[in-house]
Amino acid sequence: MSPYLRMVQWLPDWFRIWIQNQVIPALGLQPQVIATGMIRGIFDSFLFMMLMTGLLAGGRYYLEGQYALPSTIQETVIKWAPIADFIAREADIPREVPLVLWFKENSMQARNPENCTGIIGAYDLVRSGEHPCFTPGPISDLEVSEQLAIAAVEFKIRCPEITYFTQDPETIKRCYFAYNAGTGAANRLSADESAYVMNNYNEKYANMVYSDIELGTVQVTALGAWPAHLAFQSLIVGQMDMAERPFSLSILNISTQIYDLGTQVWYEWLDESVASSEMMALPNGRSTDTTTCLGEPHKLGRFSLRPRLNPVTESPILTQDVHGCSYSLPGLDISSNNRSAVLQAPMPGSVTTYTDQWYNSTIRIENDEWIVCLLHPGSYCVDEGDVTRGQAVGVMGAVGYATGPHVHYTIYDKVNEVFVDPAAFLP
């Protein structure tokens, strides 16, 4: 019996005879050749995957040894990598750049220095009057992301030829030089001579002399922007080799983004939501064109993080269209026939509850891309922690500046850094 037939000997005799005498001759197939080819193909694919994984892992381990980063820096890089990626996409620069600029200027501390130039060292912006003093002292995550976005825009202005997909070392090094010393210096001098760019890249570039408008001329020991860029890139991609993740995180990241984007386009094309929710009528011909405090929401990003549910679970009724620009919290007022309707989380995220300066009780939910606020709840179902989409978070009420039970619903886009029209996110 041939090897092929031994593989299928569990099949009924009549079926094997029919395949052997009728199907195979009719198709001109050679079972042994096919079986051998399949086995070789599987083996070759396995070797290729092992080779690529080994190369990526080896590169990561080499860079970890070559450019050692403190554990606190590594944790900060991993935490901020997704947000930096969105900021970089918007500015069309490589995804590691915002974090490298933060690292170079402020050691990735969420604290503005005393010189008013912020965590990104925005000397020119502050001294020219284009931007006011960055208030010295600790700052929130939101302020960190705002400054990283400013740095990303400035980086692109000083080096317009760079893009999100740029991988050429000479281009990236020249762009870091332009950001630090200006476009003119980058055009006439070599980035390899800049300590800001190249220090500690290898033994040749160890302990370079650095001239700075604040520090003067000093000999530095810290990593330059280019080796820091390589170290951050390696750290982000290196998540692939964790024991629980045997495949490349970069491939997983790309496939996840493609899936999320495809899912988003599909559901928006169908005008459907993944989760069910009560429908709510909006006025015909409504216009928010004159509402200057609202902006356009970002189009890309993870569909799974997007607000997609009406926060009012029972018979939602729009009682007032967009308002609140005067106190920087624009949104919709939504009520219900049930004056104590349950409020649900429109999206997954981390929730906090508090009373604001106008004595409004507030439920605040934040994830990597969005912040939503629900004002006036009569009671909370959660105090703090993580919530899932559709989870009960409170009961509708009229606590604070309110004339009756309702919820004031606002959405802030962290990527585009603007408040957006909540109506665009309702089922």
Structure description:
The protein has 427 residues and is an alpha+beta fold. The protein folds into three domains: 3-57, no CATH class; 67-241, Orthogonal Bundle (Lysozyme); 248-427, Glucose Permease (Domain IIA). Helix content is 39%, strand content 16%. The protein has twelve helices and 15 strands. The chain has helices spanning 3-7, 13-27, 31-66, 71-91, 97-106, 123-127, 141-158, 169-181, 183-188, 195-198, 225-237, 249-270; strands spanning 111-112, 137-138, 209-212, 216-219, 316-323, 331-336, 342-344, 349-355, 361-366, 370-375, 379-380, 384-387, 392-395, 407-413, 418-420. The strands form four sheets. Strands 5, 6, 8, 9, 10, 12, 14 and 15 form an eight-stranded antiparallel sheet that branches. A three-stranded antiparallel sheet has the order 7-13-11, with no helix packed on it. Helix 4 crosses helix 5, helix 5 packs across helix 7 (141-158) and helix 7 (141-158) packs across helix 8 (169-181). It is flat. The relative contact order is 0.08. Residues 54-62, 240-253 and 271-276 have low confidence and may be disordered.
